Amino acid sequence: MRAKAVLAGGLAAALLAAGADAAPARHLVNGVNVLEPLTIGGAEPFWGATVKGSRVIWSDPEHERLIGKVGRPRLTPDSAVWRGTVSRLGAFTLTLTPAEECSDGMSDYTFPLEATVAFREYTYRGCAGTQEAFARARKRGEGMVR
């Protein structure tokens, strides 16, 4: 019994040494922890969303700051998929997949994830990254959001 406790303690110490905020690999898509607050957006038409926990805020040319809810994402090594609802627009599906350098078509930034948001009759395509990485890139004047 003591050997199991020592092994478990060693594993816990190793995990702590790796960093308290290190994301488990199952939450990573293209190196991005998709459980962190996300910035998502695209052009034609201009649209944007933020996802933070179970809350989503959506904007497009006809709607500004609609609030909605999302469930936990379904994760695979190559994607994260959320299902949710946004007030006045109804149900949607958000899918994030890896990208070399996704351009949102609106800025000089490139993002590590491609985004697809599908409502009943509309599909929006754009890019995504964490809010923290986007803020860091803006502050440093960098073009890549990583």
The gross shape turns out to be: globular
Tally of helical segments: 2
Terminal Cα separation, in Å?
Answer: 44 Å
Class by alpha and beta content? alpha+beta
Oligomeric assembly? single chain
Query: Could you say how many structural domains there are in total?
Result: 1
Percentage of residues in helical conformation? 10-25%
Radius of gyration using CA atoms only: 18 Å
Number of strands: 11
Strand order of the largest sheet: 3-4-5-6-8-9-10-11
Average pLDDT level: 84
Beta-strand share of residues: over 45%
Question: What are the segments in which pLDDT stays under 50 over at least 5 consecutive residues?
Answer: 1-21
Q: H/E order of the elements? A: HEEEEEEEEEEEH
Main sheet summary:
8 strands, antiparallel, barrel
What does this structure look like?
Helices cover 18% and strands 49% of the residues. The protein is built from 2 helices and 11 strands; from the N terminus they run αβββββββββββα. An 8-stranded antiparallel beta barrel has the order 3-4-5-6-8-9-10-11. It has a two-stranded antiparallel ribbon with strand order 1-2. Strand 7 (74-76) and strand 8 form a beta hairpin.
Overview features:
2 helices; 146 residues; alpha+beta; globular
How would you summarize the topology of this molecule?
Layout: H1 2-18, E1 28-29, E2 32-33, E3 38-42, E4 47-52, E5 55-60, E6 63-70, E7 74-76, E8 79-86, E9 90-103, E10 110-118, E11 123-130, H2 131-140
Antiparallel strand pairs: 1-2, 3-4, 3-11, 4-5, 5-6, 6-8, 7-8, 8-9, 9-10, 10-11
